[in-house]
Amino acid sequence: MHRKRLMRSVTVRRLTLIGLATAVALVGAGGAAGMRDQSAGDVSSETLTRIHDSAHQVVTTVPVGTTVHDFVVVFGSLSGPVPTGNVDIDWFLNGTCEGPPAVNSGSIGPLDAAGTYDAVGFAFTVLSPGQRAFKAHYEGDATYAPSDGPCESLTVEGGLTSQTSTEIHNAAHQAVTVVEVGQTVHDFVTVTGQSGNPTPTGNVHLEWYDDANCLGNVLATSGSIGPLDASGQFDATGFAFPVLSAGHRAFKAHYEGDGTYAPSDGPCEPLTIVDANIQITPNGVDRVGDSHTFTAHVNVNDGNGFGNAPDGTATTFAVYSLPRRVTPPNPPTPQRAAGS
Ligand SMILES: [Zn+2]
Ligand SMILES: [Zn+2]
């Protein structure tokens, strides 16, 4: 690449000296398809680019099958005119613009009144995963010198669909959908690929929500974590949360894709956190042999707030440390909770 750029600059310099006819021959010999304006000025210009998809959205990562083109902006000096003239663009089958480009657009343009050119006529449909890059070269005009844009890389993700599934683990790595207040949970992610193809690799990212539908607030995001193991699984023990109040939470996992597989989102995975308490009334002191009626009131929180336990919830009273000489006239028996 450096060699090619060098030849171009030599060509440009000679253009002013020896005229157009010879210059065309030199350009051909140098392998550079773009041709410089032989009267290019010497005010410096700056070339920037964005990669567009066919809807002219700026993209840096696309799935296989996407058609992309380059959008070029050339900046001149603040006090000077807007740059005019043409650009030429290289298309590389790598992400670093190393080596010769796979294709060069030739001289295309012109820049519009804003100094931009949307190179829809130099578009490529990416058919395999990997890296690509555009690099644009402004050819200069009467005011401005030529300038090269930076190497602009594009990541093409695999076209095979992947499937992301998750289960919520407690601290003992048991799959849970309901836990009691005080437990700590994390997400366990499995990404499945296509049979006959490699196991998915790469990273995932996770979200932790304050509701059961992944529509509420995101309490935390993991960032990119991983990698998936040889089975396409990742146990996200580093993204674990103690659940300190009854209610609903949810994890949602996103597989980030690799060279074979496209990204995929797991389903929203709800977790219900439950709690319960019991109130026994009344307190009192009775003589042995007197009867004392207790009422046990059990409150449960199924994740939707505290309420009475269902009618029929069993509670058990047991008597401990009873003096040996005393035989209770009525041994304790399980009571129905006053939950209604
Ligand atoms: Zn565009
Ligand atoms: Zn686990």
CATH architecture name of one domain: Sandwich
Give the overall shape, derived from the CA principal axes.
Answer: elongated
**Termini separation (Å)?**
82 Å
Residue ranges: pLDDT <50 for 5 or more in a row? Answer: 1-37
- The CATH superfamily of one domain is Macroglobulin (MG2) domain
Largest sheet: 8 strands, mixed
Describe this structure in words.
The protein has 340 residues and is mainly beta. Among the domains are: 40-157, Sandwich (Immunoglobulin-like); 163-274, Immunoglobulin-like (Sandwich), CATH 2.60.40. The chain has two helices and 24 strands. Bound molecules: zinc ion (2 copies). The site of one zinc ion has 6 residues, from strand 3.
Label this structure with key terms.
single chain, 340 residues, mainly beta, Immunoglobulin-like, eight-stranded mixed sheet, six-stranded mixed sheet, 24 strands, disordered N terminus, binds zinc ion
In short:
This protein is mainly β and 340 residues long. The chain has helices spanning 2-18, 20-30; strands at 46-53, 61-63, 67-75, 87-92, 103-104, 116-118, 124-125, 130-138, 147-148, 152-157, 163-170, 178-180, 184-192, 204-209, 218-221, 233-235, 241-242, 247-255, 264-265, 269-281, 295-301, 306-308, 314-315, 335-336. Strand 8 (130-138) and strand 9 (147-148) form a beta hairpin.
